[in-house]
Every structure is written in structure tokens, then in C-alpha cells.
Amino acid sequence: MAGVAGNRRTIYSKNVIRQAFQELLLEKEFEKITIKEIAERADINRGTFYKYYKDTAALLEEIETELVREISGNLQQESLSLDLWLSKLLTILYENPSTTHLILLNNSHLLNLLMTEIKPETFKRFALYFKEATTEELELCLSYFVCGSIGLIEHWLKAFPEMAPDAVAALLIQIFTTNVYERE
């Protein structure tokens, strides 16, 4: 049953296309990756690529959507403590370095998802510390919190990939709970 979604040949073809694409993402910029290169790396013909994807942007969008769905499923476990939640999130990102790097650079679905998921709880916590803050000021605090965290995560993935996700989660928690201006 060739061409049927979910059959072995379809699954195999999509997997080798994705693997080739993700390898190329680690070597060069997204905009410079061609379908010909993906097909050659995956050892398929270009027609096979076009059978499943319109272009490289459609392939990236599918990979992003699946990663965001995986992250979202983990983020919605409300009973997790912040350190476990962060550890799970960082493990997912760590296991998908090429896609994660591209997503973080483009501030795509991942940033929007993180903002949406953590905003209500984070607003409550910020309001406890910044009792006189306006909604606009709380929005700025949240932006600082999320963008700073994403910057740290991106730098970790690029510069220190040998660090374990749990260690980076612990560092983020330490940063969140430290008052660097407190006098001794």
C-alpha cells in the first residue's frame, strides 16, 4: 500500500528525509539547504521528497509542530515542580539540537508556546514580588524572564552541549531564586 500514510515505506521515507534535513541544519543555514541536497543525503529522488513536502519550509514546519506538540504535552503536566518541568523541557530540546537551534533563533512556535503556558502562573508570582506593578510592567518582567531563559538555553545548546539538561535546569532555578543585588 505505497502512498498510504502510516505504512512502512512512507514512515521510512519521511524519517530519512527528516534525518538528512536535520543533519544539514547542523552544517549550514536553513535558507541555503536545497531539496537536491536533502534527497542526495537521504538517498532518495527529489520526487519522493515532493510526495511528502511542498518545500523545505513545509518540512521544517512539520518538524517544529511535532516538537512543539511534544513540549506542550510535557508542559501541561501541572503537578510538576518547576525544576522537573524545566528538566523535561531541556531534555526535549537537548535531544533535538538542530531543530531546537533553528526554532530558538527564529523565535517561532516555541517562544509563543512558552509564553502562553507559563504566563498565568508567572504573572501571579511576579505580582507577589512587584505589588505596585502595572499589567504592562508585569508583561515586561515576563518578557525578561522568558527571553533571558531562552538566551541561556540557546547558548547552552551551542557552547556547552556536554552539560546535562538537569544541570542547566538547576542553574536556571538558581538564577530565578537568587537576588543578585542583595547585600550580604
Automatic annotation (TrEMBL):
Gene3D superfamilies: Tetracycline Repressor, domain 2. The keyword Transit peptide does not apply. Residues 34-53 bind DNA. Residues 11-71 form the HTH tetR-type domain. Keywords: DNA-binding. GO terms for molecular function: DNA binding. Pfam families: TetR_N. InterPro entries: Homeodomain-like_sf, HTH-type_Tx_Regulator, HTH_TetR. The keyword Lyase does not apply. This is HTH tetR-type domain-containing protein. It comes from Candidatus Enterococcus testudinis.
